[in-house]
Amino acid sequence: MTEQKYEPKVVALICTYCTYTAADMAGSMRLQYPPSIRVVKLLCTGKVDILYILEVFKAGADAVMVSGCEIGDCHFLEGNLRAKERVAHAKQLLDEVGLGGDRLEMFHIGASDAPQWAEAVETMTRRALELGPNPLGRSRARSESAAAAAS
Fold first, then answer.
1. pLDDT tens digits, residue range 46-82?
2. Strand partners for 37
């Protein structure tokens, strides 16, 4: 039996105007970054709710990054500031429940900063590798495989 290599599941909740544009540009520039990133495009990171973040972890993500416009540059004035506060609170909650606030991070990436996007994805992937698999994801996978075996 061969052991599978752990490939972390990193989910990025990103704004349409800045970070998504930077991610798109990174692709056009053929910048290399880990392919395990899963992007969820939002109109603004101000729409990110703590419950969304927690649900992403419950679904098995090993790390979550929220990325919006640079400070002072939000297309919706203060959406990225609201997201920054919510991410800080969610990090505290993750620490309290034992999952670890380090699995979550907020980034501010301008539309023309494709290299910063690639670096942020690399940072979160490396962090997820260091922290290991999300314990919620493993227990969920075990319960699903047990349920499948029972039927």
1. 999 999 999 999 999 999 999 999 998 888 989 999 9
2. 10
Q: Is it the case that residue 143 has pLDDT exceeding 90?
A: no
Q: Is 37 exposed, middle or buried (0-12, 13-18, 19+ CB in 10 A)?
A: buried
Question: Which pTM was predicted?
Answer: 0.86
**Structural domains in the chain plus CATH codes:** 10-150 (3.40.50)
| CA angle centred on 138, ends 131 and 142, rounded to 5° | 165
Quote helix, strand, coil % in the chain, to nearest 5: 50, 15, 35
What is the Cα Rg of the chain in Å? Answer: 16
* Cα–Cα distance for residue pair 117/110, rounded to 1 Å: 9
Average pLDDT rounded to a whole number, residues 74-94: 94
CA dihedral 96, 59, 119, 112 (to 10 degrees): -110
